[in-house]
Specification:
Layout (H helix, E strand, L loop, with lengths): L3 H16 L9 H12 L3 H12 L5 E6 L14 H15 L2 E6 L4 H10 L3 E3 L1 H6 L3 E6 L4 H15 L3 E5 L26 H9 L3 E6 L11 H7 L22 E4 L3 H16 L8 H13 L13 E2 L2 E2 H21 L14
Parallel strand pairs: 1-2, 1-5, 2-4, 3-4, 5-6, 6-7
Antiparallel strand pairs: 8-9
Helix pairs in contact: 1-10, 1-12, 3-10, 4-5, 4-10, 4-11, 5-11, 7-8, 10-12, 11-12
Length: 348
Amino acid sequence: MISLEATITKVAESIDRLCTIEITGRGVIGPLYTAARARQGYPLCMEAARRLAEQVRPGDAVIIATGLPTYPWFYGEQDGPVGAATLARALVLGLAARPIVLTEAIHVDMCRAALRGAGLYARDIESALRLPTTGAVAPFPIDPQESVREAEIILEKVQPKALIAIERPGANEHGHYHGAKGFQLTDHCAKIDVLFERAKQAGILTIAIGDGGNELGCGLIRDVVVAEVPYAARCQCPCSGSIVPTFIPDVLVIASISNWGAYGIEASLALLLGRPEVLHSREVDRRVHELTAAAEANNDGPGLLDPGTDGVPVHLHGHLVELLSFMVQSGMDFGRLYKEPRYPWLST
């Protein structure tokens, strides 16, 4: 008989493969994923889920940082806020966590809309820390000195057990932030890096999700990003540096679309816990996209306010969620994760 651990590992491999299918034509995810996997070993989404399940207890806070100002509007996209909201939902349902979303002030409304789309109340930090099914969205400073002070305040006030960055820009070797095509975003980005750096120094779990090499956490695979991603070695701004953030997280998840990395972590957590409802549904996915788009988050690619991410329309994201759900359910059936099998013939 195949062991439970072997079954989970096999499904975890499939989750990673599905979330890294290159459907947008960029051609960079394969080498980035291969590098991240080689340096971390275990399937990436499952490694993040395992670490979260180990660290987070009921009532514990988890900080989720998201929001990437897109050129030339310098306003956020649906990639990031959507995944932050659905992962927040999973952390609430699966671990009874208290999710706190941090972003730029200009992105607060879209992130609140995303949380509501995921079925959570979107309130202030104090409310989120004491109420179930509630998340918070709070602005983080753009000014570097203010960000240092705010990082200290948040770590003391929230005492998070984990920090997760989803499609979140990070500072390069010169302290500048960039989009995937090398345009500078420094003046528009909250300096959330300092919070992650302080948290890691304090031994708090840090997880990062990215899809292009310019996201916080991709410093783990800097050499491969520079070799494989256009504009990665030399940006298109006066700093003349790379687009690769210097911060190195405890876990780096690479996915074709950053939201998909969040979905993969949800699916992995659902499998670990034996609770398929931890992964959000196709209907929730559509609702989150639609409300986030209505709050002026664009579908990066065309830059329109159509529901979807990275040019991929919303119904295709729903298909991915359904496939992940089927993987989780199949893994539970054939991995004997139920005390009693759903189908008697599976017990023979």
